[in-house]
Design a protein that fits this description.
Layout lengths: L16 H5 L8 E5 L2 E5 L22 E9 L4 E9 L10 E6 L8 H6 L1 H10 L6 E6 L16 H25 L9 E6 L1 H12 L6 E5 L8 H4 L3 H4 L5 E7 L5 H13 L5 E5 L6 H12 L24 E6 L4 E6 L5 E5 L5 E6 L4 E4 L7 E7 L4 E8 L1
Parallel strand pairs: 5-6, 5-7, 7-8, 8-9, 9-10
Antiparallel strand pairs: 1-2, 3-4, 4-6, 11-12, 12-15, 13-14, 13-16, 16-17
Helix pairs in contact: 3-9
């Protein structure tokens, strides 16, 4: 199956001479791991959620929201967690699991009451955008009194967040695995969280890539470990990282944590999504979209286009868009009427295809191997547009 991605980059890791040097554009970077390949995805190609993405929608199938108890050997008591079962949940099927963590002042109800994940996910299921998943919303303080208390920064409360790592691995995941109809193995588990929970997701998820394959952090807090210690064995562990998502508001006073983590990942060629929400702070305007985006990019789901995108060329102001037709395996080009020829280069800078092209033209790519290519549109004399795509 072919997938197509339109990419604008400030940097490109797979450089090859002048062709690659021409790929410097105006955009910020966002990255995602695709096993076996290094692919850079741009944050400006990740469209904001549509209006109403987090609102109740009538006449659609709905998931089931539960509160259940499980025994924590880590704490020595029974503890509670919220569970979201997807629409149509049945023991005749098996499901992926997302562990979704709250912030420093929250509990099992924070996401449910403020982030409405049940509305967001119900709507995404109705549109066929996400893989079926159970969502577990636990209390991230592994301690006897797991309420936020009068001082959310009290040392014992902060220690409870760190202690949750052991409860997650030893108690909660085994409970979910034996209580619900879940798929086996790490590829069927994801972890994500907001603020303090975002730090937990990075700390615990990246430390246990033998158990969890998909990691997302929305505005991670100062409990996040130093970037250099997040992944114990870079070469071995990152091979097991199926996707990493980091998002934060540009007006968030904790943005430096996301930036430091992102910069480390870039320096060590660890692909990830990195989305900065312009003008937004440390709040639900970042966290709800984070959940919306992350759930569409886990458990083998990769949106064919991360935005409807205009594909503005760095060379002029005329839009140039690319779409892919699965039926006949052709790439469809729309845009500047001056385009006369399309040339495709592989990552080594070698020309692998060149064809005359007119507006709304089609190009059959069944003869190309899956991979990353540079598509250059010209008027026959000068280059008008270029895009990096993954077929």
């Amino acid at each position: 199956m072919f997938l197509i991605k339109t990419i604008h980059m400030k940097f490109y890791k797979l450089r090859a001479g002048a062709i690659k040097r021409d790929l410097i554009t105006r955009s910020f970077i966002a990255l995602m791991l695709i096993p076996g390949q290094q692919v850079l995805f741009p944050q400006d190609n990740i469209a904001p959620p549509p209006s109403g993405f987090d609102s109740y929608r009538a006449n659609i199938a709905r998931g089931n929201n539960l509160v259940v108890s499980y025994y924590s050997s880590t704490v020595g008591i029974n503890r509670q967690t919220r569970i979201y079962l997807p629409p149509g949940y049945t023991t005749d099927s098996t499901y992926n699991v997302l562990y979704l963590l709250h912030g420093i002042g929250g509990d099992i109800n924070e996401w449910y009451n403020n982030g409405v994940p049940h509305y967001i996910l119900d709507n995404l299921y109705a549109e066929g955008r996400i893989a079926p998943m159970i969502v577990v919303l636990p209390n991230g303080r592994a301690m006897v009194d797991d309420s936020p208390g009068s001082d959310i920064f009290a040392p014992d409360k902060v220690a409870g967040f760190a202690n949750f790592e052991f409860e997650l691995i030893k108690d909660l995941i085994p409970f979910i695995d034996t209580t619900y109809s879940v798929k086996p193995g790490r590829e069927a588990r994801a972890i994500a969280g907001l603020s303090m929970g975002g730090g937990q997701a990075l700390n615990f998820g990246l430390a246990h890539l033998d158990t969890i394959a998909w990691v997302g952090a929305f505005s991670p807090a100062p409990n996040t470990k130093a970037a250099a210690t997040l992944i114990p064995n870079l070469s071995e562990d990152t091979a097991n990282l199926s996707a990493l998502w980091i998002s934060c508001g540009s007006a968030d006073g904790l943005l430096y944590i996301s930036e430091n983590t992102h910069n480390f990942m870039v320096q060590h060629n660890i692909d990830h999504y990195y989305l900065i929400e312009q003008g937004k702070g440390h709040d639900w305007s970042v966290w709800k979209p984070g959940l919306y985006h992350f759930t569409q990019r886990i458990f083998g789901q990769v949106p064919e286009t991360d935005s409807p995108g205009t594909g503005i060329s760095p060379y002029d102001n005329t839009a140039f868009s690319i779409s892919y037709n699965h039926t006949d395996q052709t790439v469809i080009f729309n845009g500047n009427t001056d385009i006369k020829r399309l040339s495709i280069y592989d990552i080594n800078g070698s020309l692998v295809h060149s064809d005359p092209c007119v507006r709304n033209g089609r190009l059959n790519i069944t003869h190309l191997s899956n991979g990353i290519y540079l598509v250059v549109a010209s008027d026959g004399i000068r280059k008008l547009h270029d895009k990096i795509v993954k077929f």
